[in-house]
Amino acid sequence: MLSFFSTITSMCANFILIVRTSRELGHPLFALACILKPLYDSSYTHILWGFDYFYHVENKDFIHMQAVASLTEEDHRSEVLAGGLSDYIIAEYAKSSNRVGNLPTARPESQYGLPSTPFPDILSALLGRAPIMYLALFAIVNPSVFSVTTFAILQQYSANLQLSLKFLLNGIRQFRHECQQITSLYDSLKMPAALSDGYLAYPPRSGSKSEKVQSEVSRGMSFDVREVCFSYPNGTSALTNVSLSIKSGQLVAIVGTNGSGKSTLMKLLTRMVEPTSGTILVDGNNMADYRLSDFRQATASFMQDHGIFPLSFLENICMGNVDAVGCDDDEVMDAVRKGGAEDILTGLAEGQDTVLGGPNDYRFGAFSMNEDDDDDDDKKPNPLLARWEGLPQAVLTSGGEKQRIIAARTFMRFNSGKVSFVAVDEASSAIDAAGEMQLFDNLIKERKAKTLVIVTHRFGPVTRQADLILCMKDGTLCESGRHDELLALGGEYAKLYTIQAGAFTTVDVDGDSNA
Ligand SMILES: Nc1ncnc2c1ncn2[C@@H]1O[C@H](COP(=O)(O)OP(=O)(O)OP(=O)(O)O)[C@@H](O)[C@H]1O
């Protein structure tokens, strides 16, 4: 900032001196000659402005590099953290970047501004000499007016002015860039503080626990939630004094009305956030004492905010278990089948190598749809439009297809053999009823040696089979137990169940109701 302002001061001083001297000499145009070069240099890099144009990127390594980089953005943050994918992302970025090599990767607009012939550079150099040429010319014509000293002083001033004007124009660009960076830095400061890492290995090494505890752990993760409260950074209190216990290998359903705290409870169980107060024990130890990377490896989460990565279908599935990338096709196909994504794969033009969501992200068009015809008022379509529309189309997925692919990714994660806790939060809401039932069936079948916790709004096979139902209301755990027990209790669960069951009750012409 200081150098920015000192450049402005020095530029103004030089400019005033040059204007005054050139007016005294009767040559005001000299001042103009001094600023020609910086003005020309700063303008020719933007010559694309005002033209109709579009660009698209075809280099697969570049697209992959950008796609991998985009996984660090907010949209994918929770899944990348939950899946412990950071190391894989860094390694993949380095690989793609090496393959891209020295190819220029700046935005096409700025690359277009780079001169393809030496003439702009020659013109720039000539304009740089304009002040001295101007002086030389008039010194020859009027030798009495120009002393050698005047000549040397003016040459020095003009060089200084050109230099400071160039710094100033670059500085303005840099200043705008830094302002943007500062804004994003402040945005990132609003993010919740990072979780502290623990020191205990998960699962605990054999010999470190009693035999009974060891055998419990091998059946799945257990949780003991003790008087946990949680408030979001904006002050919203989402959970108040929640205490519950989930045993190893249990199938648990979390139910409740919107905003009752189900997802927040799931975020706590998957350690995406820390309790504001209270403790959560996992297999008898404070959850925060486990090494985060171990805990993440032992957890498979399938959440409503998870999305499709802008990568190939295959990589989208393999992100569930990055160690399997490029390994066993059968494993991938098995996960695809269990997630119900086979039909999606069959429909993809390039099979499992089809990039999902791309390549639309790597193209940009700046042209009007119509061209003005000067002869009459008719407008004809811009010829660029047909070429733009002829580019390969992005492979988009519907909400249900997206969830099936993410489900397949979750099943792929099971293949790591390290998962002992599966967290599913309303992640199948867009899948049709038969598909959802099949998916839950597959999850329940695959839950051997895993604790499976499912947040659901639909009362059905999951709630009937659940070993434990946690019914949430207004941020508290209002009831817990099995389906029959809770129905018999006649409280919140029974009320929600009856409302949903009522939707499937028909009233016949005699007024009898039949489920
Ligand atoms: N990121 C957030 N920032 C602030 N408040 C939040 C945030 N997420 C949730 N809340 C608030 O916390 C409370 C509990 O939300 P939560 O998402 O846990 O409920 P839920 O039972 O999962 O709801 P739904 O059934 O609609 O998914 C709500 O009042 C909600 O508005």
UniProtKB/TrEMBL annotation:
InterPro entries: AAA+_ATPase, ABC_transporter-like_ATP-bd, P-loop_NTPase, Type_1_exporter. It comes from the Eukaryota. Keywords: ATP-binding, Hydrolase, Nucleotide-binding. SUPFAM superfamilies: P-loop containing nucleoside triphosphate hydrolases (SSF52540). SMART domains: AAA (SM00382). It holds the Pfam family ABC_tran. Residues 223-499 form the ABC transporter domain. GO terms for molecular function: ATP binding; ATP hydrolysis activity; ATPase-coupled lipid transmembrane transporter activity. The keyword Acetylation does not apply. This is P-loop containing nucleoside triphosphate hydrolase protein. It comes from Guyanagaster necrorhizus.
